[in-house]
Amino acid sequence: MKNNKQRFGAQELKYDLVELFKSESNNSSTLALHFDTEEINQFCDFTKAVLAIVAKSKIKHGSVTLFTPHTTTALIINESETGYINDFKNRIEQLVPSDSYYEHDDWDIRTENMQEDENVNGRSHVRSSIVGSTSITLPIINSELIIGRWQRLFFVELDCARSRRLFVQTLDLN
Amino acid sequence: MKNNKQRFGAQELKYDLVELFKSESNNSSTLALHFDTEEINQFCDFTKAVLAIVAKSKIKHGSVTLFTPHTTTALIINESETGYINDFKNRIEQLVPSDSYYEHDDWDIRTENMQEDENVNGRSHVRSSIVGSTSITLPIINSELIIGRWQRLFFVELDCARSRRLFVQTLDLN
Amino acid sequence: MKNNKQRFGAQELKYDLVELFKSESNNSSTLALHFDTEEINQFCDFTKAVLAIVAKSKIKHGSVTLFTPHTTTALIINESETGYINDFKNRIEQLVPSDSYYEHDDWDIRTENMQEDENVNGRSHVRSSIVGSTSITLPIINSELIIGRWQRLFFVELDCARSRRLFVQTLDLN
Predict the structure, then answer these.
(1) SS3 A147
(2) A39-54 pLDDT per residue, tens
(3) Could you give the C-alpha distances from B50 to A173, B30, B144, B155, in angstroms and in order?
(4) Average model confidence (pLDDT) for chain C?
(5) How far is C15 from A17, CA to CA, in rounded Å?
(6) Phi, psi (5° rounding) for residue B45?
(7) CA dihedral of residues B135, B138, B140, B141 (deg, nearest 10)
(8) Which residues of B touch A136 (CB under 8 A)?
(9) Which of residues 144 through 163 in chain A touch C, CB cutoff 8 A?
(10) CB B134 to CB A136 under 8 A?
(11) CA A90 from chain center: how many Å?
(12) Cross-chain Cβ contact C82/A111 below 8 Å
């Protein structure tokens, strides 16, 4: 029976693009994408966005570095296939379960960084640390981003729906 | 009883080296190593290859970035000791077991990216995402790669034997 | 009952700062921090140290790359909150348990890299590989390090108390 389950794969979110800095002597630049994630474990596909930044940069030879400024997210490069994404979600739930005790969420003993709107997100911090990709660097050759046939650039939301940013820095080596 | 088990440590594979780009104004360059892995969980040691690229680059001060364009591999820097490598293999098998269900491998429901020669590699995609190293950057100081006494640069095959590439980009900071 | 447990959060260790190289043509430079960790799973907070290096570098637009030359450590960017740090310690102990068998520690069969002062640290090598952050790159914009509100730069000791180094390379893009 094909397609007997609803399929939730990666999404391409709407984003605002902000140019933060441009080099005076070469084509290096740094930009930020601003966007709103929609749910826990959302795989946000920014491949097209980064390809467009590389094309516009006019860099022939160099690199792109992605950086997330958040503590409950991950940058993952993998295949945009719904089954894989569900496999990842299931596995991270088994490795760092939602129904475990997290001291980060225990306001009877916590004393640091408490916010009015604090999420129950102890699992999200630990998941982010285990997955462990805060930055990734990819080469640019002959004005093209080096990215494998099946690779897509995912910003993965490990917390709930939130306003997020992704920094993209292009480096001109010529 | 010493050596009562056969030891399978890291391997140095044969590779073809392709120079892809060289900067016009400095010693930065980007190369690709092409090679064939031989089995799942093979630790392919490219330390000597990268040291040779750094030596040939004539870069006095800069960095090297390694990048894998694949979705079922990992870059790991660790010790070249057979026991550690076996420990890693055992642990990744326990954390992301081969005998679990992977939706990526379920052709009754899968609809995306299906290939004639598709491997059963759902576990490999998830393992790659959990280990999570698509790129690594190491400094070059006084024309030498900064690499710890026990560190070796491993390209780790998390799928079966396949044709693979590793990108190596040198960056000249002088 | 608030504060009924003793709290062990991140520590700012004393360190020696060594400047290794400075570019002749721009403000790029590479430095090393030398320090002694104090116990397993210590989260060593070097945020202030890196902020000071960026400020002193005079770089307006560029990046900072952190690199650990060790095989039993990890670089983690996350929140400096004691509960989260304890949650991470508990989870890594469950995922890669201390009381499992590690072939790396089995001197009846081990034949490679044996040292007089070798630690029993098989678990530490595997934990380092799973957490998997040997290098991280952060952008610099308008002379300021881009680091999220809750992000802190941790060098995490996954072995016992040891002498350690952290490399910090600033890259000037202007």
Answers:
(1) coil
(2) 999 999 999 999 999 9
(3) 19, 12, 11, 12
(4) 94
(5) 39
(6) -90, 110
(7) 160
(8) 134-135
(9) none
(10) yes
(11) 18
(12) yes
Q: How many whole angstroms separate alpha carbon C174 and alpha carbon C171?
A: 9
Q: Which two tokens stand for residue C36?
A: 């002694």
Measured between beta carbons, which residues in chain C are less than 8 angstroms from residue A24? Answer: 174
Chain B segment 18-57 residues within 8 A of A by beta carbon are: 20-21, 23-26, 28, 30
Q: Closest Cα to residue C92, out of C119, C130, C37, C121?
A: C130
Minimum-distance CB partner of C169 among B63, B80, B174: B63
List chain B pLDDT tens, one digit each, 174 residues. Answer: 444 455 679 999 999 999 999 998 999 999 999 999 999 999 999 999 999 999 999 999 999 999 999 999 999 999 999 999 999 999 999 999 999 999 999 988 888 888 877 788 999 999 999 998 899 999 999 999 999 999 999 999 999 999 999 999 999 998
| Closest among C67, C63, C65 to C173, alpha carbons compared | C63
Distances (CA, A) of A102 to A10, A72, B104, C41, C81: 28, 14, 31, 17, 12
Q: Is the ipTM of this complex over 0.90?
A: yes
Q: Write down which chains contact chain A via at least 3 CB pairs under 8 A.
A: B, C
